[in-house]
Amino acid sequence: MPYANPAPVGATLIGQQALNILYQHRLVSTLQLHQMLTPHHTRAEYLRRQLHKLRDQGLADRVGRRAHGQTDLLWWLTEQGATSVEATGLLPQRPYRMSPEAAAGPLQEHTLATVEAGLGFVVHARALGHECGPLDWSPEIAHTYRDDQRPGEDLRLIPDAVLNYVHVQGRQRTLLTFMIEVDRTQMTIARLAQKLHAYAAYQRYAPQPSPGRGPRPARRTAPSQAWRSRYPSQAFPRVLLVLTGASQERLERRVADLRSLAAADPALTTSTVRAGVTTLDRLHDHGPFARIFTPVFGPADPVDAWLRPAQHAAQNPAA
To answer: pTM of the entire structure?
Structure first.
């Protein structure tokens, strides 16, 4: 009976929600959990007590932060905690398991920065009356595709996060989906531009039907792009590059270098992927619908309300 024990005995609602968040996002700081779950409390003492109860039950554990000068504790689920969440059947199962070594390892800051990017949407959705919660983005979802430049290979596009956001304006509700890449200045600009190649190739990719033995159809129709089966009611998700991990001046130079490299690449200038770049600080300070995103292609001026729903975006009044 897979759902016989849907929640740990004695777990509060906050405790159960914390378990779900830790399962989905793998490693989350106390402060981030506080902003997600108990923003109405001035202090995070109640949340801390619930987290320590989960630790006492063997469901969660904690680790210190590697970054110099950072004292916030980071939380992750044990094997028992992950099994407990999976038993509820409320979240898609993920094979990944966090370990003490991985929690304290070199990818710690990147994982936290990805959570921080999603949190920027959550905080501003709350203020604007839109809908985006702690479970509305998923890290590292694989998208399989093929590229004419690499025939015969099965390739995988893995955004740092895929985020869903319901934009509300009066009675109109629009579902927006974003693919987020977090860059902590750890990779070269050429490598970052190569990621844009992957998005352009995935947008173009249309699986060819397998040859069948039956009669050929009277009319052949062009195969549909693979992304349409995953995002059937929308335009191709917008790609957001969120920069952090350096001074504002260095990040601005990085934006300019990325735009220059993209403008000189024919494979990118002919793409219709909508990609914008900003900094994590600007996302948090001003929100995703402010004038903070510089298009990777085209004029360099930040676009006002770049993420607002387009006229052709999918409408879902009943959502």
So the answer is: 0.88
